[in-house]
Amino acid sequence: MKLSKLLGNRLKEAPKDASLISHILLYRAGYIRQNAAGIYSYLPLAYKTMKKIIDIVREEMDKVDGQEVLLPSMNPREMWDKTGRYQSIGSELIRFQDRNEKDYVLAMTHEEAVAFLGKSELFSYKQIPFMIYQFQLKFRDEPRSRGGLVRVREFTMKDAYSFHLDDKDLQEYYYKVHEAYSNIFSRTGLKNYISVQSDVGMMGGKLAHEFMLLCDDGEDTLIICPECEYKANKEIARCRLEEFREKPLPMEKVHTPGQKTIEQVAGFLDKKIEQTGKAVFYYDDTNEQLIFVLIRGDLEVNETKLKNRLKSKEIRFATDEEILKTGAYPGYASILNLKSSDGLKILIDESVLTSDNLVVGANEKDYHYINFNLKRDYPDAEIFDLYSVPENSVCPECGNKLKLSKGIEIGNIFQLGDKYTKSYEIQVLDQDGKPQTPMMCSYGIGIGRLLASVVEESHDENGIIWPMSIAPFQVHLLCLSKKEDAARKASDDLYKELLEQGIEVLYDERKESPGIKFADADLIGIPVQIIISDRNIETGEFEIRLRKSKDSRNLSYSSDYIKEIKNIISKELSLCRR
Amino acid sequence: MKLSKLLGNRLKEAPKDASLISHILLYRAGYIRQNAAGIYSYLPLAYKTMKKIIDIVREEMDKVDGQEVLLPSMNPREMWDKTGRYQSIGSELIRFQDRNEKDYVLAMTHEEAVAFLGKSELFSYKQIPFMIYQFQLKFRDEPRSRGGLVRVREFTMKDAYSFHLDDKDLQEYYYKVHEAYSNIFSRTGLKNYISVQSDVGMMGGKLAHEFMLLCDDGEDTLIICPECEYKANKEIARCRLEEFREKPLPMEKVHTPGQKTIEQVAGFLDKKIEQTGKAVFYYDDTNEQLIFVLIRGDLEVNETKLKNRLKSKEIRFATDEEILKTGAYPGYASILNLKSSDGLKILIDESVLTSDNLVVGANEKDYHYINFNLKRDYPDAEIFDLYSVPENSVCPECGNKLKLSKGIEIGNIFQLGDKYTKSYEIQVLDQDGKPQTPMMCSYGIGIGRLLASVVEESHDENGIIWPMSIAPFQVHLLCLSKKEDAARKASDDLYKELLEQGIEVLYDERKESPGIKFADADLIGIPVQIIISDRNIETGEFEIRLRKSKDSRNLSYSSDYIKEIKNIISKELSLCRR
Fold first, then answer.
1. DSSP B319
2. Under a CB-based contact definition with an 8 Å cutoff, are residues A363 and A333 in contact?
3. Residues of A in Cβ contact (< 8 Å) with B45
4. Complex ipTM over 0.90
5. Degrees to nearest 5, angle at CA B258 with B257 and B260
6. A99, A199, B94, B100: which has the fewest C-beta neighbours closer than 10 Å?
7. Which of A66, A112, A67 lies closest to A86 in space, CA to CA?
């Protein structure tokens, strides 16, 4: 490919409001252009990289016996009514009507379409297990699409779905795909990725893992134990909470004039903040109810855990007015002395059990109780895991100190159980002729996000540094001569020869200054650069340079330079594996 | 791939309302399933075929220097307002709003997205010509989606767009892609396809060609001259109209009691039907006006030509009431003696010029005029090509008798001129530094429709007959033994060996009857069948049979049978070329 004809210009300016480096570099280097918020055109350089990623993913899916399919994006509403997701998913799901005013959605994932297919095709245990996968557009109307290709509203996803008849088979296959995912990420050249336990979110099901690229600019917070295997997204993470044990004392109402915050009350009563119970009020917009969470004073409520518990799409902090209506008194709120709990849902976080003799509100201005002991004083409480892991916590499994990291999600896998097969009433006959409901898993990788994640990990101040396995071209050939001279002829000849040898070359044959050409080559990020100039043509050599290390050497035209170039490409390629 | 695990069952029944054989066979053989009207899932067999078609198309696009891209499906309304198509396209264009109530369309084609990109990237003549292409979903909310994959509402299309600065370059490249399209269709195994001149339709522009598979079940009617190069879709076709010349006589009003139809009047007045002028009234829903077409009595109005002339999305016959309002008298309607032509648009078809002394209506019950001569009696008429080519017409170019054929459109190419580049105000500097507006062409192939078209052409009473180039597998291996015996062991071994040799095999290892297995193999249509049975294992041979010709022979296990199988595959493959 000649650079002069390549669609997509190099630009000096970053896009407005860009914060992620992958967004800035992919835009500046002419890989992507934005059509609307979260909607991008992939220009030729980006598509070449995308296609190499797709080919790697396809190979790994085929290795675990995946069957490639293509399922439609337009899904009739009834398909999503069947699983309840037409209602339970908010405005991320794009809904529209066709010419006959029939309701449709644009699939943001394809569990429904897969279950629909399973319903018509599955009848016998002999057909199971199997896995199907596709590369298909997904539409998600994100409220905050930002960060270039990392959070978009339309994207190509590799999604896969497996069916199983027993849990052993499901577990085995799930971890086989986990392994395939690791292969994929390593083969695309990523180094610093891990898998963590994660929220099942809108997918439902029992267990899920996210593959995360560790990256300071990531949106997700990860809780990682450096000593054992424990790794989880903060959205679902747990820790071992320190306990504060004392001999339970009788509960007593105390005067705490003007002491409204937890810190004030604890200080006034000379208690540790861990020995207080904090009331937090939310309003649950989905179920239209007020939520009262009691949690240990030093901890914060984890809103993902709370939303999952409530099966709510949207929660927000309640207003003082809303709180007053329930009979609770803001600043001194308590589950004790509530005039009525109509329309109020009370949830107790498990941290409340870890301290004895807690200070809690009295639902009366300027008064608190001391020596509240949940099991004794509120015995019917339902207790849940609703806390957010704080800094400096210890591992719930081994007790060692946990580490917090930021990450970008690059893939996720879900054990869905029978959620979808049950909704679609899929049954197959087992070996004894008895009907059984199969179980499903699903597995996703956003191709564009993976592409951007590689750039997040692999770049320098001058531009992108592609791993060889997914680089848009293998070699960037620069002719530094502006004239029709020996250097240009040598460049033209080498370009042809490299093409004939099956080497992928981007040839900068423009009559621009060397400075512009070097800057463009570094920005575009092709791993091997070959430079032909008026100067080195005189010595019968050309320069070959690695984008990453800047290692440079000269190769003589009289040597077996093709072999040498191929060796360099192979060596770079060999870095892209586990 | 083992057949027992392949997703998609073989079925005895055709889908309800299926008329096209490709629809019936692809459904029965387990290639496709319908999710909603015109919306299909591609099961593994179909996707394998689709992928081979995509690879062929990609190769041919790359050969004409195409650059692959991926442009978004979600297009903000403003992109389509710019070209006027948000308004001018009817409900085929799917419109919806995002979470912020911003208007979007689902792209049914990507001229807007390409022009949007051109606007930001093009600045110099040095960048032009170039072509970009993609494989991307298209959404078209067809009123009558029928025929399986032939007319659908969501489909994968290869669309391509080229930019040119002068007409010579445009013409050269356009016909280069025309050639690439022929290569594509031949390489997918199609034989009876032609290209015809076609309506530019919603694309606009100056000239267009459709590639048509000749096929009795096709929706399109083609007008073909067997003697010269003239070939056109009936929607735009012309013919040489026979002329009826006489000495013009004075116009005269005559009493024609009860003679309302053209045939009655002609008979009553002893005139040929070609010597009458017929009034046809339409209502143009887009422009909200009544249309009066005057056409020679023996001819029909071509509604595509009429709609293009009116720039109308929708026309229908006018009601008597609507006609009466204009002052015209139904049955005796005429452009003469119209009380008023307010709100009435009069269009004269060019056929009216071919006869002298026409009989036309008098706008008065039971009266006609004879000897109407357009140029003399209605000199200010605007004259257009609005007729439909009738049967038994002669070629407009060479005068030989035209043939009518039915066809399925398998690809189309358009010379768009500057319609889109002008709307987007794209200008580049030419060699003299002067701004120029580039021109565009666009080129489309629906992948699923091409797949179905191959089945339309290549099948028999038992099922599909795939050309080797796009068959889902090369070899269908049938083990006829139901037991764990020598035949099964030989089958398992051959399956492994074929896979190791890189041959694509579907292995029917089920314990079903030979009858079921043969029927399934013929239905699925893989070009080479290999049969291993208890009987032929005894003679140390297996049977190899061609799906198409049923030619069968035995190969000995002691021979170089792999070489022989590869030869057969190569020979079949060699049939898929021009």
1. P
2. yes
3. none
4. yes
5. 115
6. B100
7. A112
Taking only residues 137 to 196 of chain A, the set having a beta carbon closer than 8 angstroms to any beta carbon of chain B reads 137, 139, 141, 143, 153-154, 156
Closest approach of A90 to chain B, Cα-based (Å):
10
Per DSSP, what are the bridge partners of residue B171?
A: none
Q: Which amino acid is at B34?
A: Q
pTM, rounded to two decimals: 0.93
Q: Looking at the partner chain, which of B43, B99, B132 has a beta carbon nearest the beta carbon of A143?
A: B99
**Helix, strand, coil percentages in chain A from 3-state DSSP, rounded to 5:** 30, 30, 40
In 3D space, the residue among B465, B407, B402, B442 whose CA is nearest the CA of residue B189 turns out to be: B465
Q: For residue B366, give Cα distances in angstroms to A335, A473, B263, B360.
A: 94, 80, 15, 12
Q: Which residues of B302-311 are buried (b: 16+ CB within 10 A; e: fewer)?
A: bbbbbbbbbe
Complete DSSP assignment for A215-237: -TT-SEEEEE-SSSS-EEETTT-
Q: Which of A213, A193, A211, A209 is nearest to A201 (CA)?
A: A209
Residues A459-465: contacts with CB within 8 Å, 24+ apart?
A: A459/A21, A459/A22, A459/A25, A459/A525, A462/A519, A462/A522, A462/A523, A463/A25, A463/A28, A463/A29, A463/A522, A463/A523, A463/A524, A463/A525, A464/A25, A464/A26, A464/A29, A464/A523, A464/A524, A464/A525, A465/A525, A465/A527, A465/A547, A465/A548
Residue A181 is encoded by which pair of tokens? 């995912």
End-to-end Cα separation, chain A, in angstroms:
31
Domains of chain A: 18-232+404-456 (3.30.930.10), 252-384 (3.90.960.10), 466-574 (3.40.50.800)
**How many whole angstroms separate alpha carbon A20 and alpha carbon A26?**
10
User: Which chain A residues in 400-419 lie under 8 Å from chain B, judged by CB atoms?
Assistant: none
Residues of B in Cβ contact (< 8 Å) with A164: none
- Chosen for mutation from A70, A119, A134 (greatest number of chain B CBs closer than 10 Å) is A70
Q: What does the DSSP assignment read for B178-247?
A: HHHHHHHHHHTT--SEEEEE---GGG-SSEEEEEEEE-TT-SEEEEE-SSSS-EEETTT---BPPPB---
Taking a C-beta distance cutoff of 8 angstroms, is the pair A294, A372 a contact? no
Side chain identity, residue B116: F
Contact A115, A85 (CB under 8 A): no
Q: Do B36 and A132 touch (CB under 8 A)?
A: no
Could you list the beta-strand ranges (E) of B215-365. Answer: 220-224, 231-233, 252-255, 277-284, 289-296, 315-317, 344-349, 358-361
pLDDT tens digits in sequence order for chain A, 578 residues long? 999 999 999 999 999 889 999 999 999 999 999 999 999 999 999 999 999 999 999 999 999 999 999 999 999 999 999 999 999 998 999 999 999 999 999 999 999 999 999 999 999 999 999 999 999 999 999 988 878 999 999 999 999 999 999 999 999 999 999 999 999 999 999 999 999 999 887 777 789 999 999 999 999 999 999 999 999 999 999 999 999 999 999 999 999 998 888 999 999 999 999 999 999 999 999 899 999 999 999 999 999 999 999 989 889 999 999 888 888 888 898 888 776 666 789 999 999 999 999 999 999 899 999 999 999 999 888 899 999 999 899 999 999 999 999 999 999 999 999 999 999 999 999 999 999 999 999 999 999 999 999 999 999 999 999 999 999 999 999 999 999 999 999 999 999 999 999 999 999 999 999 999 999 999 999 999 999 999 999 999 999 999 999 999 999 999 999 999 999 999 999 999 88
Q: Which two tokens stand for residue B279?
A: 């009034």
Which residues 105-134 in chain B show a CB within 8 A of chain A?
Answer: 106, 113, 116-117, 120-121, 123, 126-127, 130, 132, 134
